Amino acid sequence: MTTRMPGELVAVTYLSAVRRTVGMNRLQAARAAGLPAHVLYRLERGSAGLDLHTATRLQRAYGITSGQDIEAVTRLLRAPEPEGKMQRDSGPGNRERLMACERASRAIRMWTAFWVPTVLQTPDYARTAARRERLLDSGPGPVRLGLRTLPRRGPRITLLIDEIVLQRPIGGPNVMAGQLAYLQRLIESRAVAVRVVPIDSCIPPPGPHLAELQLHRTRLYVDESIGVHYAIDSPDRSRHRAHLDALEAAAASPEQSYDWIGRARTALVPHQS
User: Fold this and answer.
1) C-alpha distances in angstroms, 243 versus 84, 110, 114, 251?
2) Burial class of residue 215 (count of CB atoms within 10 Å of its CB; 0-12, 13-18, 19+)
3) pTM beyond 0.85
């Protein structure tokens, strides 16, 4: 993997998703952009780096004409290597670029201490969460918030959810009870591994939200606390991975978590079962 910055990996993955959306295969896209087909193949497989000139040619080939979208990709590619800090994607469409990365991932491991992650929210819960998130996101320009979903045959997902999230009735008791019921159905269908992390686990959380995306041969870390931030840890000192490993080790089993979620649901709306 030759990608040097997290922003470059995000830009490559986003442009690949746009290519599929406009209905081009790799050969058609390479011809439209004036690139050898093997170059585009290596770019999308993560074995070659993306420069600004090539990104501009691809955007033209895919019909990307919005100045905001072009600027966002340019900013991702031009951002300097962050020294111990995450790289911010603050432009309009940042959630769409994140969704492209999520859909292209082989596996996703999520931690949350505040609310259920967007990709696992019910529509009612999402509407309330989006209104609150709009107050927290201070990035410039409009941010398109809303329900972000994954395809039926999407990545393997493990959700590590702090116990306190189950007790925070976002949207009111009925909305929260519906969200908890949905998490139980996901466990039943084995679509998602949901693991509750007890409050008394004594592990300092890495923040309100942190996700690990296995994208190509890279682990991309995402923080959506305020805006969208990305990082790629070096293999020999992956602090983000170590933190998630510790939380997963402390979490209850999926079976125990199912019962835990059921008790929280009953406490919110006693007449529901």
Assistant:
1) 15, 11, 17, 13
2) buried
3) yes
Give the number of other Cβ atoms within 10 Å of residue 192's Cβ. Answer: 21
Instruction: Kindly state the tokens that stand for 166.
Output: 């189950």
| One pLDDT digit (tens) per residue for the chain, 273 residues | 455 689 999 999 999 999 999 999 999 999 999 999 999 999 998 888 899 999 999 999 999 988 888 898 998 998 766 666 788 897 788 988 999 999 999 999 999 999 999 889 999 999 888 776 554 443 433 333 334 666 667 789 999 999 999 999 999 999 999 999 999 999 998 889 999 999 998 888 788 899 999 998 899 999 988 789 999 987 666 889 999 999 999 999 999 999 999 999 999 877 554
As to burial, measured by CB atoms within 10 angstroms (0-12 exposed, 13-18 middle, 19+ buried), residue 273 is: exposed
Edge-to-edge strand ranges of the sheet holding 107-112: 87-89, 228-231, 218-223, 209-215, 107-112, 156-162, 192-197
261: which 2 tokens? Answer: 């979620």
Radius of gyration of the chain (CA): 20
